[in-house]
């Protein structure tokens, strides 16, 4: 089989799946907005602060995932850096809602610390790779300048 045909078919299926995922995320986002608006508009009932804050944090998570699906279509990829950002912000938001168990707080703090270490290591590795690429390009240009009569 032709590899171009397989690649195009795979990309088409992936695009359709990302569109479906984006529609699902946006519908959950709209549902959470509707639930928050109904809690706001119904003023006579007693509202649990932690339940409302949990609903707000869920809304933000759906919003972030909808942005990820948009990024896929704009940049034709989703960067690992954005997944790390979302993981860190999700854990921080979770700390705002669940704060009554000390062991859970310690586990979440350790998870946030681990994500930060991964984020720093990822950025350092990316910077190192770009620096090496730059050095290789520069060295290649210097070699060509020093040996102008050579055919490559």
From TrEMBL:
Which family does the entry's similarity section mention? Belongs to the PsiE family.
Alphabetized UniProt keyword annotations: Cell membrane, Membrane, Transmembrane, Transmembrane helix
Q: What is its main location?
A: membrane
Mind telling me what this protein is named?
Protein PsiE
Query: What's the protein's topology in the membrane?
Result: Multi-pass membrane protein
What sections of the protein cross the membrane? Answer: 12-29, 105-125
The UniProt gene name for this protein comes to psiE
Q: Which organism is it from?
A: Periweissella ghanensis
Q: Pfam families, per this entry?
A: PsiE
Quote the subcellular location field of this record. Cell inner membrane
């Amino acid at each position: 089989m032709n590899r171009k045909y397989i690649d195009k078919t795979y990309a088409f299926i992936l695009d359709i799946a990302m569109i479906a995922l984006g529609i699902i995320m946006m519908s959950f986002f709209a549902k959470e907005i509707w639930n928050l608006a109904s809690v706001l508009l119904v003023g006579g009932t007693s509202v649990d602060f932690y339940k409302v804050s949990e609903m707000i944090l869920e809304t933000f998570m759906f919003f972030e995932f909808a942005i990820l699906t948009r990024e896929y279509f704009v940049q034709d990829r989703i960067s690992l850096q954005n997944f790390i950002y979302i993981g860190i912000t999700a854990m921080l938001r979770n700390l705002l809602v669940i704060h009554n168990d000390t062991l859970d707080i310690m586990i979440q703090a350790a998870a946030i610390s681990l994500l930060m270490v991964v984020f720093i290591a990822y950025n350092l590795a990316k910077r190192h790779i770009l620096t090496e690429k730059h050095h290789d390009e520069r060295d290649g240009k210097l070699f060509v300048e020093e040996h102008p009569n050579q055919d490559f």
